[in-house]
Amino acid sequence: MVSEAKKMKKEDSDGGQSDADLVVDDDGGGGGHDSKATGNGNGIHSSGGGITNNNNGNRSPRENGGSNATNDAGSKKDPLSPSSARSTPASAGSSGKKDEQGSVAGNKTSSGSPGAGKILPPKSALGALAGYPFGPDGLPTPGVFNGFRPPLPTALDPTRPLPPGLIPGVAGGKPAYSFHVNAEGQSRPVPFPTDALMGPGIPRHARKINTLPHGDVVCAVSMSNPTKYVYTGGKGCVKVWDISQPQPGSKSPVSVLDCLQRDNYIRSIKLLPDGRTLVVGGEASTISIWDLAAPTPRIKAEMTSSAPACYALAISPDSKLCFSCCSDGNIAVWDLHNQTLVRQFQGHTDGASCIDISADGTKLWTGGLDNTVRSWDLREGRQLQQHDFSSQIFCLGFCPTGEWLAVGMESSNVEVLHCSKPDKYQLHLHESCVLSLKFANCGKWFVSTGKDNLLNAWRTPYGASIFQSKEDSSVLSCDISSDDKYIVTGSGDKKAIVYEIIY
Predict the structure, then answer these.
(1) Taking Cα atoms as reference points, which of 352, 362, 290, 285 lies closest to residue 321?
(2) Which has more confidence, 356 or 76?
(3) What domains lie within the chain, and their CATH numbers?
(4) Is the pLDDT of residue 125 over 60?
(5) What's the pTM?
């Protein structure tokens, strides 16, 4: 799992207060990425493979073995401040320059502080990510520099080749990877029902149909409804791709939206249901609203927060409100019509990293770098619940058709919580940080992606593994089309991949 790292020329650091600086060979190639961290970190090399699935003729679900292994490793936090910048007017030009190496550094915040600290000059914070663990603030996770390596998964499938780094199966059976945890905290392997991978709305596998060469690490993706356009967010800009028409050779974007300064990364893209409006947030205090129906897409409004960065966005079902996860831990609520701040939810003691909203628009779920997931009542403007974990929360998703919330963590775990009952499921297939997560609109399955290059598809809620795809680099972002027919992922090797879901 650990390989020799190439020695790279180290750029000047943005500040001298971080535990270590990270330099990565981010060449955007199709193979693995060699990385080197100064300090105690180990270089990690990852290589890609093809799509695999567990269809073996009889379509029986991947069995969940009887080994009651645990896989819950938290790490000490060292939150760092993101870069800040103002957004720039729209431009139709596209830059195809080779990306430079990224060097990141930051300053610690005191315990319990809501992400306070000096703002670093614009520098490539996320550019050094490909093939290395990192936090939702765009900086490497502190555990890397303490010799920390994420725990190995406890799941094996004897019908497929053993992925690199997996531990061999225990004698007498396969280790379990899905566990049910009851209200008393007792954990037991889940016996999957016979129809776990069968029936309407359950995919068989997925196949790659498009590769979109964005040119920078793709930290955010979104798809239009109907599925015609894909939006990819990278360094400073969002690129728009038309995937409805075959295009010989390498695809080119139909539009480039210059949203932030060149060295600041887009962190979230939300397309309103009308298909005419795009909301973009990232490593800047400004959230931009784009008019896509204009002859040339243009910024029609901006919303400026007191926080230096926006890590994630959500839109209310009626398209009237926008919710932004701020790097200071607050959740800002914006009126999209007149671009005013109407409310702030306060509770997270560190950066708010991810967000989702219930289908009826009455409840909000947020996750943070303070190791908590919180729910909020949008009618009364108050916090309802708080779930505490031993790991930073990097992503979450609320099931559109049920009372389940899936949570992805830095520890490599995926947990599926019931919103009104104390029981939950713990899923252990990722080998490293879980970076993005998305439910299918039918609610019957969801996908998660990680630093381990994997795209995993799971059955709701108990987590039977439906299929996997191995990419060539860390998979930072994902989205599922509104008709549940396509998946798009954004990765550390500067491209997005479109999958067709096969039923």
Answers:
(1) 362
(2) 356
(3) 1-503 (2.130.10.10)
(4) no
(5) 0.71
